[in-house]
């Protein structure tokens, strides 16, 4: 028995050394054995641009729904992204538009007919059914639908609006480490229309929920790698306010060149200047620009890239452009209707650090097929499986 035990251990040692050698040569080494001891999951990859699932895998399912986020995780998302708004009773929800009209069936309910309002949002009068005029219970009685008519309509009416906390639970229950990428959506409007009894504002409630679920730590810190998160906003004042509450990494979103910031009324040119980058890098780790401001396009053909990425990198800021979509009407002619050509251009020519995409699986496949590193489901997982088998073999001998 002792000789057999020694033989097993000797074999296990040599195989383990072999796998560790191969793994170290191929990618940054993560100590696989610690995952078993601590019960952790496969870690977030940090060696390639981040695959950010824009509102979940909304190329397949209605945006910001539970199945959209679960599918994005299945398809290899590094981060699942969401927009955060509030209900009338102060519950934070995952929803993009301040109005419910375009992506829910709110219009068919006679009992809600008198809820239609006209409010000023970012200097524009908008008429519709606003989330801030519905309680959470009422919001969750609605059913969501696909935004774009050329996408799959079979799931319309099957899913409901989820809360920010529901969204976090989806990420935390994933079989591997999956980050979250929530946006403080329209904070000026929300703070005007929703009042919390304890006198706190939208941003305070947002950070409270993150802390409740254990999100903490600066970018790439040990705590951050356990539960990764980027906080994003188009509103600089919200980012600065949140910076006083948490050291979690933040991203300043940047809109079209014609649209000023929603809170400070600064122009695109002001917030993308070197002087502003030097200022804002005290609060953010990166920027999230609309991709056509990075590489302008005319008549659906891309032009010469701007120097935005180069200058942002010079200020040690990451760049995560939005939004990459597989449909022909979103892919510029230069890429021959091929999303993989587009990914290649943005990752290998422009050099971005993350991409917001509606089609998580496509970006995941592209990164795996074109990388000289093993895919996330190859070498490291095989080594992990082998270690589990070795552990079982050793334990079986010990129990005899």
UniProtKB/TrEMBL annotation:
It catalyses: a sn-glycero-3-phosphodiester + H2O = an alcohol + sn-glycerol 3-phosphate + H(+). Residues 49-367 form the GP-PDE domain. Transmembrane segments: none annotated. Its EC number is 3.1.4.46. GO terms for molecular function: glycerophosphodiester phosphodiesterase activity. GO terms for cellular component: vacuole. One of its GO terms (biological process) is glycerol metabolic process. This is glycerophosphodiester phosphodiesterase. It comes from Cucurbita maxima (Pumpkin).
